[in-house]
Design a protein that fits this description.
alpha+beta, 321 residues, six-stranded mixed β-sheet
Length: 321
């Protein structure tokens, strides 16, 4: 009798443990399934979505000795949905075709209030990108970088609000994206026989109490992408969002854009937070391209003195999609 009572208590305890382990994976994958970023803490937890397979898997294992078929089915379903969403979002290629009319090497970096300016300069000298998109570039950072690049488009501001696009090719600056908290400069560059639109992306992060602003600024980028649909476009920077955020996917979908890292098989390579424990787990730094481009390669580069890894992308511009 005592053994039966003890067994019952153990099964009950394991059932409770499995249920508790499933709360967060179920809520977060449910929001992912229904295409909503909801409210705090969902956007923050969506950045961790692949890692939620761990508590879901533990819940599945714990549920087995509990002999609760519904609980086991719940755990198995949560694990399966989580694993399904770890797949890359979007097509594996672009519709680009025809001869290559030009090549670009693009570097996107967040230098964290200008702290990593010297390290970025060393990277630029080593990698020799044609275009550099720099977020959180204060006036001192901008002066240091423009000494090495003859062309640029700037939003001059202190701290995180400053940003620049720099190039070895002549750039025609465009007005910064209006209505944003941090600078998002733009430009046009002639590559081969095509004019390519450039825009730096740096919306506010999804901080508690600031989810509405984060969604709004990603919405501005979505509208910009939609307005330039069908034209050669490179949209790059610190998006403060991953492929698991609906607001980011809307930018891709509205402008028929492609994530360069996804095209190169690196959709889940982390770019943030660098220099921390655990290692980078969320890819929030992106280079998005229109269907006129194909991707020859991508590399995430460690950049000391900033919490972001830089992203280097080699692009081919084709005569069409």
């Amino acid at each position: 009798m005592a053994d039966s009572s003890t067994s019952h208590l153990l099964r009950r305890a394991t059932s409770w443990a499995a249920g508790l382990l499933l709360v967060v994976p179920t809520a977060v994958t449910g929001c992912r399934l229904f295409g909503t970023d909801a409210v705090t803490p969902v956007p923050q937890l969506l950045a961790l979505l692949p890692w939620l397979a761990v508590p879901a898997g533990l819940a599945f294992l714990v549920s087995l000795p509990a002999r609760r078929p519904l609980l086991t089915a719940w755990a198995g379903g949560a694990l399966a949905v989580t694993l399904w969403f770890t797949q890359p979002y979007g097509p594996a290629g672009t519709p680009a075709h025809g001869p290559v009319t030009g090549r670009l090497r693009v570097l996107a970096a967040n230098v964290e209030f200008g702290n990593a300016t010297a390290e970025l300069l060393a990277t630029v000298r080593r990698e020799r990108p044609d275009l550099v998109f720099v977020s959180e570039c204060d006036p001192a950072c901008a002066r240091a970088l423009t000494a090495h690049y003859p062309y640029g488009a700037h939003v001059a501001a202190a701290g995180s609000a400053g940003s620049v696009i720099l190039g070895t090719l002549p750039l025609t600056p465009e007005p910064a994206l209006p209505g944003t908290t941090m600078g998002m400069p733009g430009a046009t560059v002639r590559v081969g026989d095509k004019d390519v639109t450039l825009r730096l992306a740096h919306p506010m992060p999804p901080l508690p109490g600031g989810i509405g602003l984060w969604k709004h600024e990603l919405g501005l980028l979505r509208d910009f992408a939609a307005a330039h649909k069908g034209r050669p476009l490179v949209l790059a920077g610190d998006f403060n969002a991953t492929q698991d955020h609906a607001a980011f996917r809307s930018v891709l979908d509205s402008g028929a854009l492609h994530d360069a890292a996804r095209l190169d098989g690196a959709a889940r390579t982390g770019s943030w937070p660098q220099n921390a424990t655990p290692p980078p787990y969320a890819q929030i730094d992106h280079v998005l391209v229109s269907g006129h481009f194909s991707v020859r390669g991508t590399r995430f580069l460690d950049l000391p003195r900033t919490d972001h890894r830089a992203l280097l992308v080699d692009l081919d511009l084709h005569t069409g999609p």
